[in-house]
UniProtKB/TrEMBL annotation:
Keyword Transferase: yes
GO cellular component, one term: mitochondrion
Reported cofactor(s): pyridoxal 5'-phosphate
Protein family: Belongs to the class-III pyridoxal-phosphate-dependent aminotransferase family.
Keywords in alphabetical order: Aminotransferase, Lyase, Pyridoxal phosphate, Transferase
InterPro entries attached to this UniProt entry: Aminotrans_3 (IPR005814), Aminotrans_3_PPA_site (IPR049704), PyrdxlP-dep_Trfase (IPR015424), PyrdxlP-dep_Trfase_major (IPR015421), PyrdxlP-dep_Trfase_small (IPR015422)
Domain of life of the native organism: Eukaryota
PROSITE patterns: AA_TRANSFER_CLASS_3
E.C. numbers: 2.6.1.-
Protein name: Uncharacterized protein
GO molecular function, one term: transaminase activity
Amino acid sequence: MPFASQQMQSVASQQLSKSDTIKLRNKHIGQACQLFYRSDPLKIVRGQGQYMFDEEGTRYLDCINNVAHVGHCHPEVVRAGALQMATISTNNRFLHDELVQCARTLTSKMPAPLSVCFFVNSGSEANDLALRLARNYTKRLDVITLDHAYHGHLQSVMEISPYKFNQPGGEQKPEYVHVAPCPDIYGGQFTDKLHPNADLGALYAQPIADICERQQAKGQGVAAFIAESLQSCGGQILPPAGYFQAAYNAVHRAGGLCIADEVQVGFGRVGSHYWAFETQGVVPDIVSVAKPMGNGHPVGAVVTTPEIAQAFYDTGVAYFNTYGGNPVSCAIANAVMRIIDEEGLQQNAHQLGEYLLRECSQLKQEFECIGDVRGLGLFVGIELVSDREARMPDTKAAHWVVNRMKQLHKVLVSSDGPNDNVIKLKPPMCFNHENADEFLLAFRECLTTLTQEQLQQSAAAAAAAASSAVTTNGVIATAADTLANKTKMFERQDRLIKSV
Ligand SMILES: Cc1ncc(COP(=O)(O)O)c(C=O)c1O
């Protein structure tokens, strides 16, 4: 590793105390910027593989950074980026081999018609461009998106992100955006419990077909249907079999294009396939990729068919993106894709994912608070509930677990989903068996303690109810106070993490 000594010096020379860092951040960084563990944030000064280290050298097992795909500061990625930076970094209006090689490798991983790339700097930019391509090709405006979806922070993609615009202070949904239900068979509109023998894929695709029909009746059609191939912000959702086939067919019949957002779930994370859309046997018209592609460096891409790219060219308006496709970004993306293959990280995701799912399902047998365990590869969700039969989301429990995992066990997990009660795992792909066991041991401790706490709380509540029934004013206190304190303790656990 060429930089080892400078790297250690740079860590050692972090002069600010943590409290000064917090003060400066509070003063100069917009408060709207999300901060993990806001009441006790982490100051991370170094990363290596699946670990991050704070300013005191404490090691955290990282189960949430799907961006550091091949591992934090992978030496090959660092070397590729540094070498290219020391050689030339300019824009893609000049010929460069890293650019074309990156496009060749990326498209070689996709089904045949997806052979043309546009390089960008982020997932938001990728989805923004994907929308432009679709609107230009179809000459239509309307977009179908899924409930709870997040597609980025630019105005254009915030408008198709119910995850954001449905928040209390969110902006209003534009008329040209149509929201279809999130295909969540555990907690969504059509569940496997309420519809045990139904074709849930068809049921969830029907509202999309209905939107298409209404749009056609109005003579407007649709420009695009955009969806994450597995919805991460929705709470690690695996759509039911046949869903995307049926949805894509309906959209295509209405003359629209299908955009697969693989910003979180691409590059082998799902283990069985390189792209998550492949698990449903569909071929999108446009694919957006980013996050893992740069392993922490800002690079993304839109991949599409020659016809769609040609229509964009035919507008006569040239596409230029100053940093999109610069040689440094492309050298890094090339290194990432090479490492995924060389180190067998997709297979690793497959094997470890199966292990994690098996072990978490075992935990579900033991702990009533686990309502559902789902996932594919190293993309796993564990849904916590307060009533398993009623599938009642337990948001407080999820926050409590996230916080305790960090404070006590130094394991970083996050919570998400419409009720923020799904514990999410999407670690760097170099996560190993030992790491899985470390997570499982810590998680088991949390569930055990949580269950004990909850039992104590219900006992306290029962005692309070009983004593209030027989006691007059003034003496009721103890049991009720204990309960109130415990509730406050739960409430103090900030809304901790959203790992978008
Ligand atoms: C599914 C999905 N799409 C798009 C984006 C936007 O990517 P970026 O933050 O790189 O702009 C995100 C970011 O979290 C995402 O999760």
